[in-house]
Amino acid sequence: MRGTEGRPLRVAVIGGGPGGLYAAALLKRLDPAREVTVWERNAPDDTFGFGVVLSDETLGGIEHADPVVYEALKAEFVRWDDIDIVHRGERHTSGGHGFAALGRRRLLEILHERCRSLGVELRFRTEAPYPARLSETYDLVIAADGVHSATREAYAEAFRPTVEEHRCRYIWLAADFAFDAFRFEIAETEHGVMQLHGYPYAADASTVIVEMREEVWRAAGFDELETAETIERCAKIFADALGGRPLRSNNSTWTTFRTVVSEHWSHGNLVLLGDAAHTAHFSIGSGTKLAVEDALALVACLEEHTALRDALGAYEEERRPVVASTQRAARASLEWFENLALYLRQPARQFAFNLLTRSRRVTHDNLRLRDAHFTEAVEREFGCPPGTPPMFTPFRLRGLTLRNRVVVSPMDMYSAVDGVPGDFHLVHLGARALGGAALVMTEMVCVSAEGRITPGCAGLYTGRQAEAWRRIVGFVRAQAPGTAIGVQLGHSGRKGSTKLMWEGMDEPLEEGNWPLVAASPIPYKPGSRLPRELSRAQLTDIREQFTSAAWRAARAGFDLLELHCAHGYLLSGFLSPLTNHRTDAYGGTLAKRLRFPLEVFDAMRSVWPEERPMTVRISATDWAEGGTTAEEAVEIARAFAAHGADAIDVSTGQVVAEERPAYGRSYQTPYADRIRHATGVPVIAVGAISSWDDVNSLILAGRTDLCALARPHLYDPHWTLHAAAEQGYSGPGAVWPAPYRAGSRRPQTGRTDAPKPRLTLGS
What we know:
Layout: E1 10-14, H1 18-30, E2 35-40, E3 51-54, H2 56-65, H3 67-76, E4 78-80, E5 83-87, E6 90-94, E7 99-103, H4 104-118, E8 121-124, H5 131-137, E9 140-143, H6 150-154, H7 156-159, E10 161-175, E11 182-189, E12 192-202, E13 205-213, H8 214-219, H9 227-237, H10 239-242, E14 255-262, E15 266-267, E16 270-272, H11 287-304, H12 308-338, H13 348-356, H14 364-370, H15 372-382, E17 395-397, E18 400-402, E19 406-408, H16 423-433, E20 439-446, H17 463-479, E21 484-490, H18 501-504, E22 517-518, E23 532-533, H19 536-556, E24 560-565, H20 570-575, H21 590-607, E25 614-619, H22 630-642, E26 647-651, H23 669-679, E27 683-685, H24 692-701, E28 706-709, H25 711-715, H26 719-726
Parallel strand pairs: 1-2, 1-9, 2-8, 5-11, 9-16, 19-20, 19-28, 20-21, 21-24, 22-23, 24-25, 25-26, 26-27, 27-28
Antiparallel strand pairs: 3-7, 4-7, 5-6, 10-13, 10-14, 11-12, 12-13, 15-16, 17-18
Helix pairs in contact: 1-4, 1-11, 2-3, 2-11, 3-4, 11-12, 14-15, 16-17, 17-19, 19-21, 21-22, 22-23
Domain NADH:flavin oxidoreductase/NADH oxidase N-terminal: 391-724
InterPro entries: Aldolase_TIM, FAD-bd, FAD/NAD-bd_sf, OxRdtase_FMN_N, YqjM-like
Region (Disordered): 738-763
């Protein structure tokens, strides 16, 4: 026994699922001298699922690591390419997806056989000794004991797990026939919407998962039914999908999915693997895949590092980003199905596209490669002219027609002098107006000197500032015809009187401060200055400041006006229960918290030209307990729309310093999606949308109407024109300025590929 400072010779594995068994087999194969023991409390043939889906990527890893297991799996696989989506009696099929599945019981048998042939000791129907005991007597303890891991819970202070239960109930069942595709079927019942996920795992068998929200499950009476009655009823609800065939169970029970995220995966010589460390929703089919890939990575790291501590650290470092990405995709998929009722009114083909791209793993471009015929059909129904990507279709807001769906998001530049935008702003906004986006937004333009965030913030509270903005608008009109320019008006509230971003974001000025005001006297964070609670008279004054700024914006010629009610600034501070503690008519219920922002909006709308649109930016969640909820965000959007808002610009967070955002690609778009489908109000999606493929996917799926991008436009002012060139598009949705037309094709580069051999001679 070498202990924790060398490669482990005695290894204990807790849990006989695919991940634990595969890790055991690999460890024994690489070093036959190892003593490897697996404890599994169930019998060898006990399993609580039916089919297992593995990706080609995972299979490739298995093939390289253990050809014997790979060949055994290969002989068992059922393969298919199609996905069928059935919605309101219409079935749409998308091909080219490439699935491989086999029975979970057969997978375990193969791994049992491999472990035995290598000399791994398998102890079935046996509870593993307490982890502390194992860690004393073995060099390495692998906890592969599943989502309810006793090991993880025993050392919760070390692993620091968070476990979140979700809103749907589901049950694993099976049918004694093979679907000819991965099938999603939607049932709209008197109790609510239910869905079936089905796929073949053998020539004569399919996995069938039935899922629905908790309230639907209870309304339908499933909480009171015995298993046999549940199975019979599910078969009746989805009789069309099943062809009238029955369903069967294998210790099946209704359950709710639990997302497990562990802050640490190892503790001393204990290490978590698979569902014990992390879970990903079954709708992207990743549980077994992740566990097997964990096993491959863990064993590789143990081979590559002499010290156990280094090996376990390397394992976690390698796997954590992959798992985090998968969990983000799984959450997006899970939440899509939780909110399935929102999408029922979509046309069936668009609904199918929306479902296929729900996790953001499959995108418009990716789906076009898999099934061009299906994707083109969705585009035609959406209204895309031939050869026109969705992002280059026009969109109308009141009297303004935007030539494409791309918006340059507001970005504070902190480069004004006394609130006056100068040459920097002319070049910054002018360059982006020339870059092809349909709408270019200013930074948050402040309605008073006291409403600035920093001394470098632009304003619209003096005639000199208005003239400077008129100059910028004039440049866009003359040099970028067809590009709209919008202004965002706001007041910093409690987040004002701070340093320039690059000198210390949100840090108070050391001198030259101005007084702060807010809905309630709550500082933004420790060390921030204390704002004064606004009196009724001051509310009237600020409303008039917004109105005057809107009037100046109209005279300056802006095409669109946006009211900033997000990110913890003054009006956002009224909306959030975390920052509005008032006891008067402007605090308390959501209706009261909305009162002042709506008064400001109404006053601005009264002086803003009728034919020009107004939008409102909101933070749809505060990313903090007790803050604005997704349901409240819908009501906020609905209220502004009732007062005349033409679209809602849906952002999140930055309301309280203690927020905990769930960052990731397009991470804010589900909030826009929810508002759009719940209210019917057009929305602008923002937040880590970085590729034209993402824009096309979001627009075509109906999750948003416009996409606002910030950092991509800092990286490339001509982002939209380059997106058109890369997609081979030339048309009215992306017009190159005359002086730039010679650059509308991607420049040639030197050849980097070597000529392929013309002839291969045998030896």
